[in-house]
Structure formats: structure tokens, C-alpha cells
Amino acid sequence: MKTNRAYRLVAFSAALLLGASTASFAQIQPHIVGAPRSRPAPVRSAYSVSPDAANKADGVRFGIRAGVNVADWSGDAVQSVVDLAELTNGAITKEQRTGFHAGAYVSLPVGARFVIEPGLQYSEKGMALVGRVPLEQFDFLNAKVTATARMAYVELPVLAKAYLTPGLYLYAGPQASYLVSNKVRVQAGALGFSAYSHDFDVRKQFRDVDFSVTGGAGYQFANGLGLSAGYDYGLSSLDKNNRFDAQNRAIKASVNFTF
Fold first, then answer.
1. pTM for the full model?
2. So what's the pLDDT on residue 194?
3. Pfam families, alphabetically (predicted)?
């Protein structure tokens, strides 16, 4: 009798403990099921960028560019002038013309590392011939005559840019340029004073459209600022009547900002 009573007491205690354990598990189970699962951290490659930068890179972006040109002419006619200048023992020299360029562009991404970038800009080109008195005893006068070809173009480059790293890129592409102004400025002076200065309009004697290829390298910072340097290689003869053979050449250094 005592054995049966002890057995029932043990069974009742076991059932009570089992019920309490089941109720406790039922209370904490929703918290376990509802708890968010941790996700593994994404693997970022060397070309990964911030979400804001990624959104900008996925769409069309606009920018402005400005910089310095160091321009010259090249060709058979120019070489003839150089050969003639050498015979003058430095009395005549050919010099580069320094100018500027400024304009705007639009960047069209076509892949993870490639961008097509058409633009429109004003650009100054040309060259200069300088003549001096070929007598050393008159060097103190600093007497010279300068003839500078002052050419101004509206250029339409279409560049293909390939990014080697997140900021560093190479670019190349064709460029069409329309001649809006071309004047030869003749200046004469001595002792630092100008005795003569006049501009001769020679635009009608030169081709209206100049075709060239351009290429270079640059670096684009994450804040939108960029730096680049390139070279324009003219393909068209400048003289409309083919009386002489000369093409444009220009080194360009630019600062740009992409919005």
C-alpha cells in the first residue's frame, strides 16, 4: 500500500515538472523564432565603393572642365620653317602658344570600369614665330618681332574612359573641332616697350573643321574633383587651299568636377 502511494507521488511530481518545463519552453520559443538571423558581412573587392557613390556611378553624371593648352603646329611646312630658322642662327625661332580650354561633359557608364564621355568646350591653339636682331651688340635692346597664330575652336570630343583602379583611368577618342576665330597678331617692340601691335584676320584661309584624336590619363577623386593630362593629335591639314601642310598639336592639363 505504501509502495503504491510512493509510486503515485513520484508520477505526479514527474508530470508536474514536465508540464512546467513545457510551459516555460512555449513562452521563450516565440522570441527564438522571431529573432533575426545574422547575415555574413559582404565581401568587398578592390573596386567596391560606398552606396552613395555606387548610385551615382550607375547613372548619367554631368561635369565641367577647364585647363591650360600648350599648342603647336606640325607638318612639312612647319619643318621648312624650322629649317629656315636654323639658318638664321637664332634670329628666327618657332615657339609654342599657351592658351586655355573650358567646357562641360556628360559621363555615360557602360560597365563596371568603362565610361563614354562626350563633351563640348572652347579651346585655344596655334603657334608663334619670333624674330630678333641677329647682332650681339644690339641684344641689350631686346628688339623683336612676334607673329602669333591665335586660333580658337569649339571642340566636340567623344572619349572612352577605362578605369584601372577606383580613381585612375586612361582615356582616348576622336574629336571634331570647329574654327570660330583665327587671327595672326604681329607685335614689334624693344626695351620692353611695344612699338606695333595688329591683328590680321586669316580665318577664311583655314579649314573650318579640324579632326583629331586625343588621349591621356587622369584621376577622379570621390568628392567629384578630378585631374587629367592629355595630347591632341590633329589629322586635318589646316590650310583650306592646300598651299602648305600643317596640323594642330596640343598638350592639355585639366581640372574637372563631376556633379
1. 0.75
2. 86
3. OMP_b-brl_2
